[in-house]
């Protein structure tokens, strides 16, 4: 008799493990696992691997090659607003990326500018719907809690300025290496890539 791992496939089995870990982390912080969205970030993986996870019942997938859209904050927000309006679709839900670590390698608005950018999107971009904030923690695990605290503080400031309850503003923080801590610190959206799909695979450069 085949094992469940063989039947499900490695990625589907890994997904089930991640969902169990999410549930445990949620329970640890007295939250419901249903409050937390798990985004399966496939990156360089083939459709056949994504299909394993889809067939296991998962429906929330993501890629991250458009993360540059917030690098030039209002200008790019305006462009995205124009593009969405030009195709006549309903407003696009967006999360604003905040550079909580101050690293030049990371995209996103500075924490001091997140209130103004959120106000700009809500008041000046009728084709965009502000839904929350996101960040990418530092690789140094010991620094990650500070990054998460910074984003939570940004949410408090943004919600106060916009006059909306904090539970209506998503916090997208936490990836494969730190999603359990992120959940304990209030994340509503975790982005899991390598833990589900394995390491990224890039095509090898051809040598002359």
UniProtKB/TrEMBL annotation:
UniProt KW keywords: Pyridoxal phosphate
Domain Alanine racemase N-terminal: residue ranges: 88-200
Cofactor(s) in the UniProt record: pyridoxal 5'-phosphate
Superkingdom per UniProt: Eukaryota
SUPFAM superfamilies referenced in this protein's UniProt entry, alphabetically: PLP-binding barrel
Pfam families: Ala_racemase_N
Gene3D superfamilies: Alanine racemase (3.20.20.10)
InterPro entries linked: Ala_racemase_N (IPR001608), PLP-binding_barrel (IPR029066), PyrdxlP_homeostasis (IPR011078)
GO molecular function: pyridoxal phosphate binding
Modified positions (N6-(pyridoxal phosphate)lysine) in chain numbering: 43
Family affiliation: Belongs to the pyridoxal phosphate-binding protein YggS/PROSC family.
Official protein name in the record: Alanine racemase N-terminal domain-containing protein
Species this protein is from: Malus baccata (Siberian crab apple)
Lineage: Eukaryota, Viridiplantae, Streptophyta, Embryophyta, Tracheophyta
């Amino acid at each position: 008799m085949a094992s469940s791992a063989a039947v499900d496939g490695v990625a589907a089995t890994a997904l089930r493990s991640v969902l169990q870990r999410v549930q445990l982390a949620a329970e640890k912080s007295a939250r419901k696992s249903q409050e937390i969205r798990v985004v399966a970030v496939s990156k360089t993986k083939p459709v056949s691997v994504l299909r394993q996870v889809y067939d296991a019942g998962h429906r929330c997938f993501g890629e991250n090659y458009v993360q540059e859209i917030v690098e030039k904050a209002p200008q790019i927000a305006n462009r995205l607003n124009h593009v969405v309006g030009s195709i006549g679709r309903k407003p696009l839900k967006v999360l604003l990326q905040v550079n909580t670590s101050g690293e030049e390698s990371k995209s996103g608005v500075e924490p001091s500018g997140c209130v103004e950018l959120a106000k700009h999107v809500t008041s000046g971009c009728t084709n965009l719907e502000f839904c929350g904030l996101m960040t990418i923690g530092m690789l140094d695990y010991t620094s990650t809690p500070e990054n998460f605290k910074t984003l939570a503080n940004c949410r408090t400031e943004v919600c106060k300025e916009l006059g909306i309850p904090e539970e209506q503003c998503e916090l997208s923080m936490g990836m494969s290496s730190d999603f359990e801590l992120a959940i304990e610190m209030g994340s509503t959206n975790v982005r899991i890539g390598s833990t589900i799909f394995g390491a990224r695979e890039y095509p090898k450069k051809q040598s002359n």
